[in-house]
Queue: 2 jobs
Job 1
Amino acid sequence: MKHFLKLNEIQRNLLVGSIIGDGEITKIYPNSRRKNHSYREHYGVKQEAYRIWKSEFFPNLLYLTKKSSTLRSKSCALFTELYPHFYEKNAKQIPLQLLKLCTSPYLLAAIYLDDGSLSISTRVNHRLKKIYLTPHIFLYLQNYTKDQLLALQCHLVETFDFNFSISKRKDGHGYILRGTSTELTYRFLSFLSPITSTCPSMFYKSSWERRFKQEKEKLNETHKGYEVVATSPDRFKNYSNKEIEKIISLKKQGGLKDKEIAVIVNRSYWSIVYKLRELRKMGLI
């Protein structure tokens, strides 16, 4: 693993996550003049900015060929070294040995930005004229067997404390990974935000605030007069008097933003938004 270990920690994790995701290590066919494998990652035009973002972590390794919409490398010993970890009989597999060396959030960021999805379920309460939006995280890795996904699932739990469930799917090998709760979704997006916030072109799946705003604007057009609400895992968790006093003080005297208050009192952003709305209605702010 001498070539792989020469990469820095971010590069190792981002590269492994990318090969698990959209990337591939090219094959060497019989009678080929090539001695080494190379990397290749095809993309749609709309995701070019994301691939440029990714390539900037590998200035001497990866480059874009825009004509063919491909992020690629030259043939090199690194990918020859990695090939047997990712392929068995030319079939792609989860690199179990390499996962032990990948404990940085960049691994998870690459897998999610490549193959993940921020899906939204909608529940309409016509009596209260409220629409509840609930975000869900999916990792569409159906090209891997259930056993391999179970191994990846264990790694994500043990390394990052994110417990994804195995969910059935009709295509591929029939299984994907799905977030188990709304709490996981918010925590997952927050955990990756220091990385994903540097890639604006992918905010549609990495920023819940951006997605919520977009969905809300659409629903305001189709359901006029309805309030659009984001489901929060601790929305109904009671606040102590001490917490309420602290929130009022921070808002009145400090003029802090809702995000900053959420961090200080250890509540989710959306829980603070709801509580501040309630306190304003009561005339306390």
Job 2
Amino acid sequence: MSFSIESIEAAVAEARTKGKKRKIKFKESFDLAVNFRKKEVDVTKPENRFNQELVLPNALIPPPKICAFGDGEFAEKATAAGAERVISKDDIPKIGDEKKERKSLAKNYDFFIAAVDAMPLIGRYLGQTLGSRGKMPRPFPPQADLSVIVNQYHRTVRLKMRNTPTFHVKVGHIKMSDREIADNVSAILSFVESKGFSERVSNVKIKTTMGPVVEVSK
């Protein structure tokens, strides 16, 4: 697999142009699809599936939603850093006891962070719900610089390949430049290469939310 940054950027530009032909009232995102050859990627084998976070060169618009668990200084730092929600330790069991609340929490937030002392409660009350979705929080000590951590998560996507030999992921927004989006795509393709999957890629396609698919040329 060999995709130059120029060919990726050209595909992004084409997708942007073709997407403009549709009259819509919201700002569209750019979505990437990486498709693998079925005969060469047996997804029944765990080693051929992945669910992993990847930090991109450029932040997404709007950024992923982050939820934090903790009290005191940790909670204050998380709020100041830009976490959309902070849940106290006392509230973790309450959420855990309500199935609807647990599922809503896991669905509505992309990433989770937690104070170290909150992890036992999270594991007990929310571990199954968050863990099954690959969303268990990373623990941090009170002195951690949460602004750096939250900023990193604003540039993070989760790459999932499970039951079919393909994965889809958001890589940008029409407010971003073609090159910024292309750099994000390139980072994802580099990840695929690092996993040893590069020669098993069938094609790579990009599109705006409502626009037609454009294949990236090799």
